[in-house]
């Protein structure tokens, strides 16, 4: 496979090979299964875990099994990765095991637990200085699988290193650390060694999954080139602008090579900036990551307790998708929460949902489609899911890299349904590769279309047609 294959970093995917451990891909919802890890290998790393039965803000005992813990993966730097593990609520003895990673890089796995596919949701109500409330998520994927939510790379969430050099990681090194983590975690949880194992995730997480299963590329230029035709297709830019871009830019809308192209791209970018790129139907809002904004008067108790928090600005509007992220900031930066989750004291100061730009991170995987191609043709099952209202990674770019494989079509383009209504469209190729859109889905479709995403995941994990 040539270097023309680029991989987007914004979908979610799932892939599984016969009787092997799995790995995840890009911003799609992708699940894979890589070669089995050497689970019997001896380990010099440290590990600790605790069973959590109650959480602040959640009424009563948790209705699911939750374990939190640390696994040491690098003795020299004292690097320890923090995880949340939720056992399958249906049949933990036979249901698959899923490793779920989130984007960023360096966004906390708590996003997966509380916003994407996990069993918790925040009650979206005005924050008044008291601890935000949590409720059970009826569309949690833990109803069909046991899931490990991992704070990776180090510097994400509660994962830390005693030596500052431990934070200097990248796509390759952090992916190899995840492989080490899984080996050690399975040593500590041997009952799961025989389970079908998948890795899934969304956004930038999809970029590092096939390093765990085999390297995968970011392909950011590839995705951005599809911003223009997608924006034209949904009415953000006019026919005239699109035609001018096609004429003057010769297929490259990212790096203009002449002034006419630069002018039209500038105009297009201004128009695209008018909408939310994660979901073009949503209002543009204050982002609650990397640093959510806090209203001083309403949050004085929190700020007094965490005096080292940098600056407390404004909060997002309650009708913004980022408001739930803001609540997680208030919840996590409370000592009651830290104690309940058994966080090691003195390891993390201010918790940020996304800790980007603080530590060095090398995006050192330039291309990964070849690896995905090789894994798929070797028997891995793959599900690639794309929200059709995502401008960050338009489904057009996802379709393009899948079509570049030139696989035979097994089940042609058709609607898939939930409750008798079209929930999106799907196509299945040879080599067990399925692509599906989620109607109305955003950049991470599991967040704003949880019911439809739940149905898709449940059917695919059960090896049934969508």
UniProtKB/TrEMBL annotation:
Biological process terms in GO annotation: proteolysis; secondary metabolic process
Keyword Cytoplasm among record annotations: no
Pfam family, one: Peptidase_S10
Superkingdom in the source lineage: Eukaryota
Keyword annotations of the record: Glycoprotein, Signal
Signal peptide interval: 1-38
One Gene Ontology MF term: serine-type carboxypeptidase activity
Record family assignment: Belongs to the peptidase S10 family.
Xref: PANTHER family: OS06G0520000 PROTEIN (PTHR11802:SF321), SERINE PROTEASE FAMILY S10 SERINE CARBOXYPEPTIDASE (PTHR11802)
Name of the protein described by the UniProt record: Serine carboxypeptidase-like 18
Organism: Oryza sativa subsp. indica
Upper classification of the organism: Eukaryota, Viridiplantae, Streptophyta, Embryophyta, Tracheophyta
């Amino acid at each position: 496979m040539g270097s023309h294959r680029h991989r987007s970093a914004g979908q979610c995917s799932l892939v599984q090979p016969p009787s092997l451990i799995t790995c995840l891909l890009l911003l799609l919802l992708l699940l894979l299964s890589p070669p089995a890890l050497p689970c019997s290998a001896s380990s010099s790393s440290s590990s600790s875990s605790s069973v959590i039965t109650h959480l602040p803000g959640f009424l009563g005992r948790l209705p699911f099994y939750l374990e939190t813990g640390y696994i040491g993966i690098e003795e020299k730097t004292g690097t320890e990765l923090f995880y949340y593990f939720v056992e399958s609520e249906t049949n933990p003895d036979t249901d698959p095991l899923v490793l779920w990673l989130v984007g960023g890089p360096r966004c906390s796995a708590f996003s997966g637990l509380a916003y994407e596919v996990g069993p918790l949701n925040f009650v979206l109500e005005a924050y008044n200085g008291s601890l935000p409330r949590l409720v059970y998520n009826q569309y949690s994927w833990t109803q069909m699988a046991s899931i490990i939510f991992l704070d990776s790379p180090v510097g994400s969430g509660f994962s830390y290193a005693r030596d500052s050099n431990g934070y200097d990681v990248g796509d390759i090194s952090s992916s190899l650390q995840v492989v080490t983590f899984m080996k050690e975690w399975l040593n500590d949880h041997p009952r799961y060694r025989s389970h079908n194992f998948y890795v899934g995730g969304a956004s930038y997480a999809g970029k590092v999954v096939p390093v765990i299963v085999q390297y995968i590329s970011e392909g950011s230029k590839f995705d951005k080139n599809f911003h223009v035709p997608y924006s034209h297709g949904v009415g953000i830019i006019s026919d005239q602008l699109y035609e001018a871009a096609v004429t003057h830019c010769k297929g490259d809308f990212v790096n203009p090579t002449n002034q006419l192209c630069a002018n039209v791209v500038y105009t297009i970018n201004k128009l695209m900036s008018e909408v939310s790129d994660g979901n073009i139907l949503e209002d543009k809002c204050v982002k609650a990551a990397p640093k959510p904004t806090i209203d001083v008067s309403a949050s004085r108790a929190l700020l007094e307790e965490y005096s080292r928090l940098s600056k407390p600005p404004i909060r997002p509007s309650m009708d913004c998708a980022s408001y739930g992220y803001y609540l997680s900031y208030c919840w996590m930066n409370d000592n009651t929460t830290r104690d309940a989750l058994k966080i090691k004291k003195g390891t993390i100061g201010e918790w940020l949902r996304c800790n980007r730009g603080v530590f060095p991170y090398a995006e050192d995987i330039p291309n990964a489609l070849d690896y995905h191609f090789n894994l798929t043709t070797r028997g891995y099952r793959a599900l690639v899911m794309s929200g059709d209202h995502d401008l960050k990674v338009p489904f057009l770019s996802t379709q393009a890299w899948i079509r570049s494989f030139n696989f035979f079509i097994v089940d042609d383009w058709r609607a898939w349904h939930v409750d008798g209504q079209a929930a999106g469209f799907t196509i299945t190729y040879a080599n067990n590769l399925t692509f599906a859109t989620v109607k109305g889905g955003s950049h991470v479709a599991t967040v704003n279309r949880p019911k439809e995403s739940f149905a898709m995941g449940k059917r695919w994990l059960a090896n049934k047609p969508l």
